[in-house]
């Protein structure tokens, strides 16, 4: 299962970096002729690797937590806290993307200049969301014997809800021909898709582990 975890993580990384990133840029209004140059420029910026890196780290953490759970007897407390931290981080990304999409749809390009043009404010906002969701998941999962499966379920539902918000907002700002607003809404769309795809990787390994556990029970009978 560990090898399959590595394969799934690599495939997910390729999807995010090679497929979803160009899609986000096209949705934001980048012309196809300029796509390769702008794509290479995005790969060289730190701000790109913050959300992309969070998605990749979250995928790897959930994948290998699942893999290790099937091969080693790790302490449930370690599993619980890792699940809380990763779930809070990814849910904070979804929440931020949804809030920004609604804000830009409502106020257009003026939404960013009202608060978000200060990097410290943006960082404080994201960290605050991470902390709030961390408290929520801690309370929600602390007495759960299946923390990881619950986290994956929440991420899948959250990504669907975020897409239901981001897609209409993107249509609004594109029809209004805003300048910078489509960047935020395209980020919302691709973030929702990325985390939706992320939730499927651990789900596959959890189903595989469940099937192996059933075989073990049959042998023991």
Can I get a quick summary?
The chain has helices spanning 2-27, 35-43, 46-71, 76-107, 110-116, 119-141, 147-175, 181-220. It has 221 residues and is mostly helical.
Characterize the structure shown.
With 221 residues, the chain is mainly α. It has one domain (2-220). Helices cover 87% and strands 0% of the residues. It contains eight helices and no strands. Helix 3 runs antiparallel to helix 4. The radius of gyration is 19 Å and the shape is globular.
Task: Please write out the topology.
Elements: H1 2-27, H2 35-43, H3 46-71, H4 76-107, H5 110-116, H6 119-141, H7 147-175, H8 181-220
Query: What summary fits the major beta sheet?
Result: none
Number of strands: 0
SSE pattern: HHHHHHHH
Q: How large is the radius of gyration?
A: 19 Å
| Total helical elements | 8
In helices, the fraction of residues equals over 70%
Q: Please state the average pLDDT score.
A: 85
Count of domains: 1
Strand content: under 5%
Entry keywords:
mainly alpha; 0% strand; 87% helix; 8 helices; 221 residues
